[in-house]
């Protein structure tokens, strides 16, 4: 099997690519090699892939029903024959709740990022590119949004609209986009001075073309790296809201809520709160490691 | 080592390790000697390894560099056998370096006087504040700065390029080191300002009989400033001769480099293009 | 072909205004190569940028062909005037392959036969089709400048402005680029303005030279006068002397 692999290798890494596709694939391959040379980043990526797989196929796995209460099996310790991670105080299987809960955690985090990143990117690049009055207005808007504390806002939303996942997502999103806008604006201000932008103007490119085709792609890498690193924080915030009872509502197996509900039996049945806590820790760590790895790959000093 | 020899390097090799372990050789067996008070020019294009050679002498190579040498001596000190601490003590007192762009080589958050105080404080730790200030002002006057008091209290970003280089020279050369390594000292400066800075440098090293290694990509400039010239390509020295004999250089690379600069009088219709012989980059050192 | 009359360019600074160019008057005939020599801060690059419309003119007027530089720059002007910048590492967009870099001006200006024009442009600057799909960071400095020149010429301009095109390159690479520029000038009958701090480079390519200092043109003269050292202004003379290398002389205090 060595021969075909060597051929692919040479094809991807050739310094005279014969088509745009070959050049793009070669660049992606080089970036992957750089990423993979750091074992920690690969660990982060692997953990997240595992999480995604479990979240996706969770309902199809032969697990217990996460919502089914078997009061006779309350507080079984981990390692029990039919409940590998034990049960909580209502007899519900913790492993099943963990796997199904991962769907919630992941969807909330992804939803937030999908809302927040494009908005921040657009506002930041527009502010940096247009300058003047537009810049001032957009940045003051950003300052206002930055002034709201996440949890307090979530509390306000919960009070006004009732607790729930959607409201939690909205509350987090409103306060999460300003750093991306600032980051994008800082990058844009730097890029606007670059010669290749002057060249684009000289060629007759419209401002919209310059903004969308040149500036936004270059800002995207640092924004994406930042978003990956922030995911950890977002997950913790979601868990925090769940802990306060403001996120997913019972009997939803949201991880933060699981930690909160395990508080009461922490001394006797440590696993009820600790196991979801370890899951939160692991996923946050994985996102952090992935973000670090991505940042090294996209470091402009190394031709990323 | 001959009594008159100031510095000696024998078979210096420098390679860089990539993150997957492969070694790329940057300097492949350089040997040179420098007499006291002599001016040696090292000329090469980018990637020839000339800057690395200067930095190896001072121990300033990056962490990913793997280097070795058969011998590396300054005066009677064996630089290879010295502990890093002793070697650091030599830097700034016996050997100094001035770099290309004073914007990047001067500390931007300290005034000129503060930086010079740090530099001089190592050699003369016993000076009190007033005496140190006088030394600083005297050093700035020696490089012909018109208003030394004002410049001493200025920050580097307030100085022009030429002024910044004069400050560098004042810091690095006024204490009279035995050896000065100048790495492209005028490349970032305008042509008239470079001439001024070179005059100042000329005067300072003549005064202290400092040996000079002048690293540059500008062959005509090195020819006019130095006594002897080394031409480097692909990490090896391909030509060594006295500066005045360079016009009759032997090696095709040197001849090509000389011919590539457009002459002001009677320029040819087409400039002769340097033909790069791949053997220069791959052959093992003789 | 090109005319500048009393051009003044001002920049706003924290304390008021700064004149990068005080009053520049010169003209360039069609097919001529005109040199602008000076040190940094002399305003030579600013004059070039004013000619492209990238920088607004505070006073005076500039004309290229039939276009007078003013508030509005039309597309036709963009096709007639192109520029090559100094820094080969900053003028190519890092995410584009060479192919995309050359295609972009063709797309913006609605020109036809993209592939054919791209291959022709690459051949003309001495880069083979093997370079077509490389990214900018996979090219050497000299190769990047060739791509920059190909990009400028692919829209078939009549005027080519060059801002220190070889200052960041090794001497041997500079020789290749200068040869290339000379050949292109002859083959395409371009009108060129070359900005440089190096008298010898200007002497190789240009027919007439203007020397700038502190935002003003101190002398304009034909290149033969420069070669014979028949110059009037002492600043020009000192620039010429400096090209001959270092000479031990009296030191001016700074």
What does this structure look like?
- The complex is a heterotrimer of chains A (304), B (286) and C (254).
- With 304 residues, chain A is mainly α.
- Helix content of chain A is 72%, strand content 0%.
- The relative contact order of chain A is 0.14.
- In chain A, helix 2 crosses helix 12, helix 3 crosses helix 12 and helix 5 packs antiparallel against helix 8.
- Helix content of chain B is 36%, strand content 24%.
- In chain B, the strands form 2 sheets. Chain B has a 6-stranded mixed β-sheet, sandwiched between helices. In chain B, strands 1, 2, 4, 5 and 6 form a 5-stranded antiparallel β-sheet that branches.
- The two termini of chain B are 22 Å apart.
- Chain C has 254 residues and is of the alpha/beta class.
- Chain C is 35% helix and 26% strand.
- Chain C is built from 9 helices and 10 strands.
- Chain C has a 6-stranded mixed β-sheet, with helices on both faces.
- In chain C, helix 5 packs parallel to helix 6.
- The longest helix of chain C is centred in the last third of the chain and has 18 residues.
- The radius of gyration of chain C is 19 Å and the shape is globular.
- Chains in contact: A-C, B-C.
- Chains B and C meet through helix 7, helix 8, helix 9 and helix 10 of B and helix 6, helix 7 and helix 9 of C.
Topology:
The complex is a heterotrimer of chains A (304), B (286) and C (254).
Chain A (H helix, E strand, L loop, with lengths): L1 H12 L6 H17 L2 H19 L36 H37 L1 H16 L2 H12 L3 H12 L1 H14 L3 H8 L4 H37 L11 H7 L9 H27 L7
Chain B lengths: L4 E13 L5 E13 L3 E6 L5 H9 L6 E4 L2 E4 L2 E2 L5 H7 L4 E4 L3 H4 L6 H12 L5 H14 L5 H5 L8 H13 L5 E5 L7 H18 L2 E6 L2 H7 L2 E6 L2 E7 L9 H9 L18 H4 L4
Chain C lengths: L1 E12 L2 E13 L4 E6 L5 H9 L6 E6 L2 E2 L6 H6 E4 L13 H11 L5 H11 L16 H13 L5 E5 L7 H18 L2 E6 L2 H7 L2 E6 L2 E7 H5 L6 H9 L12
Helix pairs in contact in C: 3-4, 5-6
């Amino acid at each position: 099997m060595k021969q075909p692999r060597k051929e692919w290798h040479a094809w991807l890494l050739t310094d005279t690519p014969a088509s745009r596709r070959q050049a793009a694939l070669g660049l992606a391959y080089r970036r992957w090699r750089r990423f993979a040379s750091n074992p920690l980043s690969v660990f982060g990526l692997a953990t997240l892939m595992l999480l995604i797989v479990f979240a996706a196929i969770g309902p199809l796995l032969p697990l217990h029903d996460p919502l089914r209460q078997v009061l006779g099996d309350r507080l079984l310790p981990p390692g029990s024959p039919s409940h590998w991670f034990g049960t909580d105080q209502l007899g519900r299987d913790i492993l099943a709740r963990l796997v199904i809960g991962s769907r919630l955690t992941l969807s909330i985090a992804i939803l937030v990022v999908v809302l927040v990143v494009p908005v921040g990117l657009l506002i930041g690049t527009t502010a940096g590119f247009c300058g003047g009055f537009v810049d001032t207005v957009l940045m003051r808007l950003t300052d206002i949004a930055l002034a709201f504390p996440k949890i307090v806002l979530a509390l306000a939303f919960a009070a006004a609209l009732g607790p729930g996942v959607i409201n939690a997502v909205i509350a987090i999103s409103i306060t999460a986009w300003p750093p991306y806008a600032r980051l994008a604006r800082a990058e844009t201000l730097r890029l606007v001075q670059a010669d290749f932008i002057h060249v684009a103007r000289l060629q007759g490119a419209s401002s919209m073309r310059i903004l969308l085709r040149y500036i936004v792609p270059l800002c995207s890498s640092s924004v994406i790296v930042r978003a990956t690193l922030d995911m950890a924080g977002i997950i913790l915030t979601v868990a925090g809201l769940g802990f306060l009872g403001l996120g997913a509502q019972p009997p939803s197996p949201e991880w933060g809520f699981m930690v909160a509900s395990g508080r009461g039996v922490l001394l006797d049945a440590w696993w009820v709160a600790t196991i979801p806590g370890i899951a939160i820790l692991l996923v946050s760590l994985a996102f952090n490691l992935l973000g670090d790895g991505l940042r090294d790959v996209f470091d402009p000093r190394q031709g990323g | 080592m001959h009594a008159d020899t100031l510095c000696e390097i024998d078979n210096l090799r420098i390679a860089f390790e990539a993150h997957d372990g492969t070694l790329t050789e940057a300097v492949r067996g350089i040997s040179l000697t420098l007499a006291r008070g002599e001016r040696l020019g090292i000329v090469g294009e980018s990637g020839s390894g000339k800057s690395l050679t200067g930095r190896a002498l001072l121990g300033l190579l990056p962490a990913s560099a793997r280097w070795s040498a058969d011998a590396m001596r300054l005066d009677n000190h064996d630089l290879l056998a010295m502990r890093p601490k002793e070697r650091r003590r030599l830097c700034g007192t016996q050997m100094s370096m001035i770099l290309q762009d004073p914007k990047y080589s001067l500390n931007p958050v300290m005034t000129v006087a503060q930086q010079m105080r740090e530099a001089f404080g190592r050699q003369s730790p016993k000076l009190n504040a007033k005496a140190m200030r006088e030394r600083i002002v005297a050093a700035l006057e020696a490089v012909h700065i018109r208003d030394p008091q004002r410049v001493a209290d200025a920050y580097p970003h307030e100085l022009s390029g030429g002024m910044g280089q004069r400050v560098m020279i004042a810091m690095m050369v006024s204490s009279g080191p035995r050896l000065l390594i100048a790495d492209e000292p005028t490349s970032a400066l305008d042509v008239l300002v470079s001439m001024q800075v070179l005059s100042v440098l000329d005067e300072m090293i003549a005064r202290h009989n400092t040996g000079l290694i002048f690293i540059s990509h500008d062959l005509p400039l090195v020819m006019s400033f130095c006594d002897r010239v080394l031409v480097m390509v692909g990490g090896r020295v391909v030509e060594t001769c006295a500066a005045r004999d360079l016009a009759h250089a032997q090696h095709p690379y040197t001849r090509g480099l000389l011919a590539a600069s457009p002459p002001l009088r009677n320029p040819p219709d087409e400039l002769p293009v340097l033909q790069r012989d791949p053997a220069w980059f791959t052959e093992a050192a003789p | 072909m090109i005319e500048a009359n009393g051009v003044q360019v001002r920049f706003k600074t924290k304390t008021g205004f700064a004149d990068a160019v005080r009053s520049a008057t010169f003209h360039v005939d069609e097919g001529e190569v005109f040199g602008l020599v000076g040190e940094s801060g002399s305003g030579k690059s600013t004059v070039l940028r004013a000619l492209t419309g990238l920088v607004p003119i505070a006073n005076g007027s500039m004309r290229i062909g039939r276009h007078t530089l003013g508030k509005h720059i039309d597309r036709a002007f963009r096709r007639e005037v192109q520029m090559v910048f100094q820094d080969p590492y900053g003028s190519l967009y890092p995410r584009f392959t060479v192919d995309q870099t050359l295609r972009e001006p063709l797309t913006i200006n609605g020109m036809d036969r993209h592939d054919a024009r791209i291959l022709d442009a690459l051949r003309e600057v001495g880069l083979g089709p093997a370079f077509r799909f490389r990214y900018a960071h996979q090219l050497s400095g000299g190769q990047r400048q060739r791509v920059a020149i190909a990009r400028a010429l692919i829209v078939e301009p009549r005027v080519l402005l060059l801002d220190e095109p070889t200052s960041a390159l090794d001497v041997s690479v500079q020789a290749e680029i200068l040869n290339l520029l000379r050949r292109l000038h002859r083959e395409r009958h371009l009108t060129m303005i070359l900005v440089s701090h190096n008298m010898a480079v200007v002497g190789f390519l240009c027919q007439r030279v203007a020397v700038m200092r502190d935002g003003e043109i101190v002398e304009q003269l034909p290149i033969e006068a420069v070669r014979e050292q028949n110059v009037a202004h002492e600043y020009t003379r000192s620039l010429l002397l400096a090209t001959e290398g270092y000479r031990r002389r009296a030191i001016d205090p700074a």
